[in-house]
Amino acid sequence: MEFVTNTELRKTLGQHLSQVRFGGKRFLIYRHKTEVAALVSVRDLDRLEEFDRKSVRQKELEYLMRADAWERAKRGEPGMVRRGY
Questions:
Q1: What element of type H or E holds 25?
Q2: How far apart are CA 31 and CA 27, in angstroms?
Q3: Considering its fold, how many domains does the chain have in total?
Q4: Is there a domain that residue 80 lies in?
Q5: How is residue 29 annotated by DSSP?
Q6: Which is nearest to 70 in space by CA: 61, 78, 81?
Q7: Cα–Cα distance between 39 and 46 in angstroms, integer?
Q8: Based on the domain organization, do 36 and 55 belong to the same domain?
Q9: Which residues contact 1 (CB under 8 A, 6 or more apart)?
Q10: What range defines the domain where residue 61 resides?
């Protein structure tokens, strides 16, 4: 990943866009010595969003599994450890 200031990016946006689109580069954009954004390809963005969707789905699944296990434990089904909550 390469670094670019927002001032430099304003002056050379077309060049940076071409490097991202055709060269597969990624840029971390700084403003006042602070990371503020990234410039990535649409392909990279799609992969990141898919990762986020999977993460949310995985968390939902884990929650449902814990809720189901809790309900089974409350009913005293075999194999379930019942704790005094």
A1: none
A2: 13
A3: 2
A4: no
A5: E
A6: 81
A7: 13
A8: no
A9: 26, 27, 28, 38
A10: 45-75
Report pLDDT digits (tens) over 24-39. 999 999 999 999 999 9
d(CA 3, CA 25): 11
Residue 49 included in any domain: yes
| Amino acid type, 20 | V
Can you tell me whether residue 80 is helix, strand or coil?
A: coil
3-state secondary structure of 37: strand
Please answer whether residues 44 and 37 qualify as being in contact, where contact means their C-beta atoms are separated by less than 8 angstroms: no
pTM: 0.63
Contact 40, 26 (CB under 8 A): yes
Instruction: Write out the two tokens for 72.
Output: 């089974």
Contact call for residues 5 and 30 (beta carbons, < 8 A): yes
